[in-house]
Amino acid sequence: MPAVTETLARFASTLSYEDIPPEAVRIAKEVTLDCLGVALAGSVDGVGRIVKSVVRKMGGRPEATVIGAPWKTSAPNAALANGAMGHALDYDDMGMSVGHPTVPVLPAVLALGERIHASGKEVLTAFIAGLEVEGKLGAAGRELYSQGFHSTSIYGTVGAAAACARLLRLTPSQTQMALGIAASLASGLKDNFGTMTKPLHPGHSAWGGVVSALLAQEGYTARADVLEAPYGFMDAFVGKGRWDAEKVVTDLGHPFHVLQPGITLKKYPCCGGNHRALDALYALRQQTSFTWEQVEKVVVESGPVLPLVLQYTFPDTGYQGKFSLHFNVAAAIVLGHVVRDTFTDAVVRDPRIQEMMRRVEWKVTAETGDILHQGTPVTVYLKDGRVLRNPGDFIKGDPQHPLSRQEILDKFSDNARLVLSRPALLKTIDLVLDLESLPDIGLVMRYLSARPRRDGKQG
Q1: What is the DSSP string of 336-386?
Q2: Of residues 49 and 367, which shows the higher confidence score?
Q3: How far apart are CA 120 and CA 110, in angstroms?
Q4: N or C: which end of the chain has fewer CB within 10 A?
Q5: Number of neighbouring beta carbons within 10 Å of residue 349
Q6: Cα 400 to the center of its chain, rounded Å
Q7: pTM, 2 dp
Q8: β-strand 263-264 against 295-302: which pairing, if any?
Q9: How far apart are CA 325 and CA 86, in angstroms?
Q10: What is the pLDDT of residue 450?
């Protein structure tokens, strides 16, 4: 058995900015901007309002920004809040081996980085190290969903700890301890998808990453091989004999996870399992005009992995709607779009949506593979006899079909405008896209707090 914990710790603790290709840095900055935007939007969602209220009552030294709030708190508590708000809308990025790679790691790095006045280069290096660690673990053990666990938070806790250890410049042995501590803090159950608790998963991961690294810095210990040990992290969450240790330790950083398999920026604020079907429907609507009343039925085909995450056939709430293929297809056809405001209890209960959901058929095939690799063919049967079909073979925003720089900026602006003034919004874009030049990450974070706008409102 390879020394998985030791190898990952050595990689994370010794990674330097100069080791990272410019293309990986570019992508890291773009996903940072994207995550900050969705966190700003999430800060005014129900999840954000409650989390901010609780974190403020918890108290803490004012050393790290809570996104969308005019006050600061301790680094662990800020990481908790910002991680939860970054996932509140399920609008944050996706990965091939970890469900949502950025949101458990970045809030930890930003909060701890602000506390220690880390430079932009230090933050980017730590962030990319954390993405690599969680990505390699996730690629080696993909069976978490069938075990009932949420890969984002399970692997993300360890990735966040690796990132924070790098930011604190811990030694390889100290980093090993941080990973070991994080392994026991990892948690997240799939059955909480479609509730407020799902966004809490990466928030808890970010909190755990900060705490694990701080404890290790002070000499706190854990089992040195806990990731690969019998009854350890991977065996417990994935299952004995169901993960590949060699895959974890081979070719670390060659290429970096952010480059291969890469990261997908979301076009729609819902579970990524819906996105191929949504892109297919939009393509069909562009080719042929039709109304929902003209539709006899819609047939969507997918492999067996998709039902593991899209677990609500007829949702009762907006949160559940994010994890309902039937709802997303119905909303796209009836409303003509799927946007932030689509996922409310009122829209879910719209009689037109309810009727259209009953016309959606989902056929599950024997095709295997992960969510982002499975095709999702969509066939629309119109009442006049016409049949429209799209293979549903790509996701707009994935590494092969990426969002353009302008689309990334437009998405950030649309989300950030809910909280930030226009000058603060534009300044944030400039700073994040030049992150490697910043002497202190606090120069970015200062613009992400909610402040009274000229119209008298406050985010």
Answers
A1: S---GGGSSHHHHT-HHHHHHHTTEEEEE-S--S-TTTS---EEEEETTS-
A2: 49
A3: 10
A4: N
A5: 13
A6: 19
A7: 0.95
A8: unpaired
A9: 22
A10: 78
